[in-house]
Amino acid sequence: MTHPPLITLAESELPALKASMRDLQVATSAYYAHTAGAGSAEDQATSVRSFLSAAQVLNDLLTKSAADKAAYAALFKEAAPGTELISAVKYVRNVSQHVLHVVRPSKTFRIVGGDLGFRGYMDWDEVPDDVHDQLHKGTQNLRHNYRAHLEGREVMGTMLAGLRFFASLHPDIVHRDRRGEWTGFPLMSQPGMSPPLHPEEPADQTVAWEWLNARVPNGDCRVISAQITVDGTVYVCGDTFIDRLTFTPFVETADQVNRDITASFPYFTATTHEHVVDCTSEFPEARQSRVLRATHDVAMWATPVDVLESGADWGRDADTGEGRGLVLTESREGVLGFSAYLIRRARRLNALVPPR
Questions:
Q1: φ/ψ (deg, to 5) at 173
Q2: How far is CA 297 from the centre of its chain?
Q3: What is the pTM for the complete model shown?
Q4: Residue 117 vs residues 16, 120, 189, 195, 249: alpha-carbon distances, Å
């Protein structure tokens, strides 16, 4: 759902604000990347401090330089949602900036995962009293915000909340890549874990299913290689490509494909296996699926789809249990609804692509 902007921004103000927002987005995604596998605690801490610095730069620009700074200040006076979190960020950023104290996540953390990769989930550490006492009075007054909104809370979730706050101010403040996606997102899927992979992802799973279906898939294009009918519903499956690489298969209803095409996302058809080579060994972090590389640009060997017409099932997987299984993994009736959502989210967001 789109909400009206909370502040007014002139076109001339956007480049600097978007650049600072990009710094914030990149610091967030970098922190998440460092929580995977044997990620270094020092690298995690560096990303945390980069996040704090970028957030405060953006906060300062909006507080002191934006033409509509009065509207921004009013949000804090009203204690609008998200403002206390930003005050908490300001507090701990000032600790990092003005006191000889290393700001880093707590040394105690939770680790999840297995054969498909491990990930650590860290919390914000406390700020000792002797460190707090060295801060200016104005910063000291923000300590209650830190204790209420950061201390003891999982770091990644609060970073995403910070991004959501700034994005809620004005939609054009978000920095986007050449595909129109938030720079640095989506985050890479962690098997079995439900925390958001995207700042816009709704917390309620029912709403999140609708959100996934309403937005176009991530990636450059999709290539359909089979049609499969399951319990009277026509599905197509294939591979999502990004820069001639595919990290994940996809499965969609014919109706969903046509909605995506109407929204200008490109689909093709082809016998994909004839035009790709397995390059999984080149991507050790991509443990959840095989990685294939197209030998040539997709447009050279695949046929564009303007409207998907359904007929008799076709393709290598059409008459196999593997094809039916691919469909059922995203069915709320085929597996637990929770697991089905996580699988669909990973595929639709193309969130099996490791940081590159």
A1: -80, -20
A2: 26
A3: 0.93
A4: 37, 10, 10, 16, 19
Question: The tokens of 268 are what?
Answer: 């093709």
pLDDT digits (tens, 9 = 90+) for 230-240: 888 999 999 99
Strand boundaries in the chain, DSSP class E: 105-114, 117-124, 221-230, 233-242, 245-253, 267-269, 276-278, 292-294, 303-304, 314-315
Dihedral sign for Cα 98, 25, 189, 247, please: negative
How many angstroms separate the CA atoms of 272 and 246, rounded? Answer: 11
Handedness of CA 209, 210, 211, 217 (dihedral sign): positive
Chain-centroid distance of CA 272 in Å reads 28
Q: Tokens at residue 101, please? A: 């104290």
Q: How many CB atoms lie within 10 A of CB 332?
A: 14
10 burial via Cβ count (<10 Å: 0-12, 13-18, 19+): exposed
C-beta separation of 344 from 350 below 8 A: no
Residue 315 β-bridge partners: 226
313-318-319 Cα angle (round to 5): 110
Per-residue pLDDT tens for 250-267? 999 999 999 999 999 999
Dig out the tokens for 182 from the structure. Answer: 């938030």
Rounded to an integer, what distance in angstroms lies between the CA atom of residue 109 and that of residue 130? 24
- Whole-number Å distance between alpha carbons of 186 and 188: 6
Q: What is the DSSP letter of 11?
A: G
